[in-house]
Design brief:
alpha/beta, pyridoxal phosphate binding, acyltransferase, 13 strands, 2 domains, Aminotransferase_I/II_large, Aspartate Aminotransferase, domain 1, globular, AON_synthase_class-II
C-alpha cells in the first residue's frame, strides 16, 4: 500500500539518527524552559535580545487586541491591511534606511515570495551552498537555473557570473548563516552584483536587531546603503521577539512584490496585534545597545571558556555559536548528556547541515547571564 512506503522511510530516518522530536514547553520563551515539569537552562531559541517575553510587548498586544481585535479578516490586498500593519511597514523602512517595506507573515513566506517574483525560467540564481532551506525552496519555485557556489567563495561566484548567459541574474545569500553564525561578505557580493548587473537578495534573519548601529542589521554593520538592485529581508520572530518578516527595497521593487508575490497576496494578513507588538519591539531594539553589548560579552565568555578544550567553536562573532561534533549519534549523545545536567542545547543534523558536520548549536541571548554561560562551559568540560 502507498502509505507503507512512509513507514519504511520513517524507519530509515530512525536508523540514521535523523528523526526530529518536538518538546512541548510549559513556560514562556526565556533563558530557561520548563519541559515535562523540569526547568532547563536553554541555549536553543533565537530570542537574541531577550524580548520574546518582555512586558512592554505583552502590554502592546493587550491594548491592540482591545482596539483592533485579534484577526485581520482578509488578505493585505483585499481588506486585511490595517493601520498597525501600515505603521509597521513605514517604521521598518525608516529603521533600515529603505524607501519602502512589505510585511509578511513569516520569514519563510518572505523568502519564497521574493525570488520567484524577480526571476523565472531563462534566468539564473547564484546561491551560497549553505543558504537556509527557505532560500533553496524559493529558487526551486522560481524555476530559474540554480547555481550554487562554495560557502562565501567569491572567486567561484564571479566565475559563474562571468560565464552565465542568463537573461536576468540574482545573487542570493543569508547575511548571517543560521547554522554557522558567520557573516556573508556582503560588500563583495554587492560589488559583483554591480559588475554583472544582478539583483542582490540578502536574508538577514539572524542579523536584524543584533548587528549594526542600534540593531539596524547587517547592511548597516557593513556600511552598505540601500540601492535599487538590493533587496533586504528581515525576520521579526528572532531578535524582535514576536513573529513575521519584512522585505525592504526600492519603491519599485516593493510595488512589484505587492502586485505579484504569491505568498503575500494569497494569504490572510497577520493579526494586527502582532504588528502592534512589533512597533513596540522596534523601539526596544533601537534602545537596546546595553543588550547587544551584554550579548557580545557572553560570546567572548563562551569562547574563552572553551579555549584549549576538546570543544571547538566555529568562527562566529554572532549569537549563533556552533560546536562541531561530526557524526549524528555522537552529537545526540552530547546533547543528551547536557540535558541530564539540566541544559538544553539542540543537536543539529542533516539535512539542516551537510552530512558529517552534525553540531551543537548554542544560541546565546541577552536574557542569559554570565553565570548561565559558566554553567554551560562547566558542563561541557565534564563530558568526555
Amino acid at each position: 500500500m502507498i502509505w507503507e512506503e512512509l513507514t519504511h522511510q520513517l524507519e530509515s530516518l530512525s536508523k540514521e539518527n535523523l528523526t526530529r522530536n518536538r518538546r512541548t514547553l510549559e513556560s514562556s520563551c526565556g533563558s530557561h524552559a520548563v519541559v515535562n515539569g523540569q526547568s532547563m537552562l536553554a541555549f536553543c531559541s533565537n530570542d537574541y535580545l531577550g524580548l520574546a517575553s518582555h512586558p512592554v510587548l505583552a502590554n502592546a498586544v493587550c491594548e491592540s487586541a482591545h482596539q483592533w481585535g485579534t484577526g485581520s479578516g482578509g488578505s493585505h490586498v483585499v481588506s486585511g491591511h490595517m493601520s498597525p500593519h501600515d505603521q509597521l511597514e513605514k517604521a521598518l523602512a525608516h529603521f533600515v534606511g529603505a524607501e519602502r517595506a512589505l510585511f509578511y507573515s513569516t520569514g519563510y513566506m518572505a523568502n519564497v515570495g521574493v525570488v520567484p517574483t524577480l526571476v523565472g525560467r531563462g534566468d539564473a540564481v547564484f546561491a551560497d551552498r549553505l543558504n537556509h532551506a527557505s532560500l533553496i525552496d524559493a529558487v526551486q519555485l522560481s524555476r530559474a537555473d540554480h547555481r550554487r557556489y562554495a560557502h562565501c567563495d567569491m572567486a567561484q561566484l564571479e566565475k559563474m557570473l562571468s560565464e552565465s548567459t542568463a537573461k536576468r541574474k540574482l545573487i542570493l545569500s543569508d547575511a548571517v548563516f543560521s547554522m554557522d553564525g558567520d557573516l556573508a561578505p556582503i560588500n563583495e557580493l554587492f560589488e559583483l552584483a554591480e559588475k554583472y548587473d544582478a539583483w542582490l537578495v540578502l536574508d538577514d534573519a539572524h542579523g536584524f536587531g543584533v548587528l549594526g548601529k542600534e540593531g539596524r542589521g547587517s547592511l548597516n554593520h557593513c556600511k552598505l546603503p540601500f540601492h535599487p538592485r538590493l533587496v533586504y529581508i528581515g525576520t521579526l520572530g528572532k531578535a524582535a521577539g514576536v513573529s513575521g518578516a519584512f522585505i525592504a527595497a526600492s519603491s519599485t521593487v516593493i510595488e512589484w512584490l505587492m502586485q505579484r508575490s504569491r505568498s503575500y497576496i494569497f494569504t490572510t494578513a497577520t493579526s494586527p496585534v502582532m504588528a502592534s507588538a512589533l512597533l513596540a519591539s522596534l523601539k526596544l531594539i533601537e534602545q537596546g545597545d546595553d543588550r547587544r553589548r551584554h550579548l557580545q560579552t557572553l560570546i567572548a565568555r563562551l569562547s574563552d571558556g572553551l579555549d584549549n578544550t576538546r570543544w571547538k567553536l566555529l568562527p562566529s562573532f554572532t549569537a549563533i555559536q556552533p560546536v562541531m561534533v561530526g557524526e549524528n549519534d555522537a552529537v545526540l549523545k552530547v546533547s543528551a548528556k547536557l540535558a541530564e545536567r539540566g541544559i538544553w542545547v539542540p543537536a543539529i543534523r542533516p539535512p539542516t547541515v551537510p552530512k558529517g558536520s552534525a553540531r551543537l548549536r548554542i544560541s546565546l541571548s541577552a536574557a542569559h547571564t554570565d553565570e548561565h554561560v559558566e554553567q554551560l562551559v562547566h558542563a561541557l568540560k565534564e563530558i568526555k
